[in-house]
Amino acid sequence: MPTTLRIALLAGLLALLSNLAVIGFIYLRTHDEAVATVHRQVIEQGKVLADVYRSGGASALDDAIDDTMTYADPQTVIALVSPDRREIKGNLETVRAAVLAPPEGYRTALVRLRGQTTPREAALAVVRLPNRQWLISGRIAGEGLAIRDTLERSLLIALVVAGLLGLLCGVLTARYVGRRISDFARVANRFSPRDLSQRVPVSRAGDAFDRLAAQINAMLDRISALMEELRLLTDSLAHDLRSPVSRLRSAAHAAAESGDPAEQEELLGSVIRQADALMRILTAVLEISRSEALTGRKQFNWFDVGELASELAEMYDPLADERGASLEYERPARPVPLFGHRQLLAQAVSNLVENAIRYGSAGGEIRVRVQPGERRIRVEVGDRGPGIPAERRDEARRRFGRLDSSRSDEGAGLGLALAEAIAHLHEGELRLTDNRPGLLTILELPVHAEARAA
Amino acid sequence: MGRKILLIEDDRETASYLAKGLGQEGHSVEQATNGQDGLFRATDGTFDLIILDRMLPVLDGVSVLKALRAARIDTPVLILSALASVGDRIEGLECGSDDYLVKPFSFAELLARVNALLRRREARVDPAEHRLTVGDLEIDPLSRSVKRGGRKLDLKPREYLLLEYFARNEGRVVTRTMLLEQVWDYHFDPGTNVIDVHVSRLRRKLDEGYEKPLLHTVRGAGYMLAA
């Protein structure tokens, strides 16, 4: 059975059932009410007549029956029946024999009144008098029944209408749901590396489907961005490995050709250096993808960022000094605890410091600062060098996004990309801003990165 | 001073290259080509050092190491691995190895680490090593005071740690990554010559004004403190 039909039938059935419950409740309430009223009246009347007989005897009862027949409304049933079941007095034409049988009391039966042609249902009180005669009194329940009949008819119509409406509702819902779901299915089906532009349409209704669509679209955006990044990465990796590999190859070739042992040794040394540089690139690329994939979180621990930064500042101080810059670090008065990967954060911060030394030493002063915060900690490295213009900062943090084109320079252009990946591992971010003048790099890290589902 | 070294490595080319090099250094090298065989030989317990590849057939290096440590065999273990990320290195060290070296490495780097580990084993046998002396250099690890030729040297805390590490490996090559790992406890590869700068500062305080230099540069490998 197709889903649409199943949903429609289910919705119809549910509507029918819920309406049935309401209608049944109404029916039971009104029915009981009407029957109870007639019941009470009839019993009362029977009791009154029996009392008349008990206190005044047969003649008094005769009078009472006459009075009733004269003055009461035409719905009243009254009859005195002999023990052999012949009517002595009253307005009852025929009655079924079953009425005149023990036990006494209340019952309903079809009766025909004198002067009428059709038998009608009546509520009757049957009393056996001490002289073995039957006293039947009661009311034709016609009006009660009539109300009940119309009620039942309208309830039945309501039920049918409710069922049909439910079915219609179900069909519409099912078609709507089906249409929305097929949007999702179509996008899931068509989204591929060849077509990353597929997105689920979002209606203006703002319903659950739209929220789901928005989330799925956001996911597809991320996937596209990752695919794009991966493509760029492979391209630039292939491109950037080409030059060191070709340098390595020509050095090895020259060493093989050279006849001079000293020159040969020199060239072989260069081969090893090039190979090491290649390995460094590959390790950094690996480290970046590991961090972006959030592996390494199981090595997270609490440690003091202030102490780490001070250690690194001390480590790089002589290097900065040698390049003609001073490295300033002011350690916060209190420990700055952070839950993270100490080794990787050390690497991230050292990358920032190395960058500042490499490109900002000319400015003279490099400043490392740790700013504690209740929920986020900032590690800042600022230099007074030429800085990076705002429009090129995104480029600078990209893998292999080294801004100067001199490829023989030390560093593979992966430093900022790696620092950013490590920030992401800690659910933090890397920001590049203007140090007025110079470049200010900021690692902003949450104190305790929640282990959010990767 | 030849020692017994167990080399557990499945790549034949690497294994024979290492065995040859270590043999030339005077060590006797026994080889195993898979984890199970390696573990079997290692439980013998008579080796001075085990060089263990991390990725091995039958039984991987980390499992071999855990089994060894569980059997209370405390032979120093140097892990060789192509897994180069900082996380991998930390994990390798945390599972009970004494050192971790990432492939590809230079033979000089391996040799320096092997010698440092063998030396550590030696030092364990001889605990009465309060004072360290190298030529006319005297180091007192308890008071962290350093004298050369009777004259006190004024060293910063990190310079002292650097010198003490050199002195404990007297006469042996110490590489830059060994210094970064042992003196700073960092396991990443800095892209600058930051270690060299520290060593040359130490050298200035240590050797300037003295006739005979103690801290030597070993080309293509690292540094060495020797009288």
Attribute tags:
heterodimer, A: 454 residues, alpha+beta, Beta-Lactamase, Heat Shock Protein 90, 3 domains, 6-stranded antiparallel β-sheet, 5-stranded mixed β-sheet, 8 helices, B: 227 residues, alpha/beta, Rossmann fold, Arc Repressor Mutant, subunit A, 2 domains, 5-stranded parallel β-sheet
Order of helices and strands of chain B: EHEHEHEHEHEEEEHEHHEE
Level-2 CATH architecture of the largest domain in chain A: 2-Layer Sandwich
Largest interface: which pair? A-B, 34 and 24 residues
Shape, principal axes of CA atoms of chain B: elongated
Radius of gyration of chain A: 49 Å
Can you list the strand order of the major beta sheet of chain B? 2-1-3-4-5
Main sheet overview of chain A: 6 strands, antiparallel
Q: Structural class, from helix and strand content of chain B? A: alpha/beta
CATH architecture of the largest domain in chain B: 3-Layer(aba) Sandwich
Give the tally of β-strands of chain B. 12
Main CATH class of the largest domain in chain B: Alpha Beta
**Could you give me the name of the CATH homologous superfamily of the largest domain in chain A?**
Histidine kinase-like ATPase, C-terminal domain
Count of domain modules of chain A: 3
Number of discrete helical segments of chain B: 8
Structural class label of chain A = alpha+beta
Helix fraction bin of chain B: 40-55%
The helix-strand sequence of chain A is: HEEEEEEHHHEHEEHEEHHEE
Poorly predicted parts of chain A: 405-410
- CATH H-level superfamily title of the largest domain in chain B: Response regulator
Largest pleated sheet of chain B: 5 strands, parallel
Portion of residues in helices of chain A?
A: 55-70%
